[in-house]
Write a structure and sequence with these properties.
mainly beta; 157 residues; 2 helices; 6 strands; six-stranded antiparallel beta sheet
């Protein structure tokens, strides 16, 4: 995976993770399955924010960052191919112990790549021993604050 931060006009910086479509991501309809898209979001988030409950050596930390909600709009299909997809990730909201991540999955890595998916996830940080919300430290807040941006425009029901 290729990882970078890319400034967006007026949006702060988005993290970008370039990843390959795997044959196992494609379902019987010939496109990337909805569950595979969710893995793309998770993979991109953990690539850009590697200390979300695990330290540099892979050991569990005293806190857990857990998903409490996902919202996903599937905009266009992606079919199996050799060209990579790009997952852009940014942080539209940072609370005391919760954080929202916004995503766009792009069908390619060029300036004309179309959006295939828009999503938002809310995560809450919990203390590992008590499983109660734990406020972010200044260091954790700074990590998330490096990728500011607006909330994604998702379709209503």
């Amino acid at each position: 995976m290729d990882v970078s931060g890319r400034p967006e006009a007026g949006d702060g910086a988005r993290g970008r993770v370039v990843m390959q479509v795997r044959w196992s991501d494609v379902d019987l309809f010939g496109h990337v399955n909805n569950a595979a898209f969710l893995r793309y979001l998770d993979d991109a988030r953990f690539t850009l924010f590697p200390r979300m409950g695990v330290d540099e050596a892979g050991a569990m930390t005293a806190s857990l960052l857990v998903v409490v909600k996902h919202e996903i709009d599937y905009v266009a299909p992606i079919r199996f191919r050799l060209a990579p997809v790009v997952v852009e990730v940014w942080v539209p909201r940072l609370g005391g112990s919760s954080v929202d991540f916004a995503y766009e999955v792009l069908d390619g890595d060029g300036p004309d790549a179309r959006v295939a998916l828009r999503a938002r996830s809310r995560m809450v940080q919990l203390d590992r021993a008590t499983h109660t919300p734990r406020p972010f430290t200044d260091e954790e807040r700074a990590t998330f604050a490096a990728f500011p941006g607006p909330s994604p425009q998702l379709r209503g029901w």
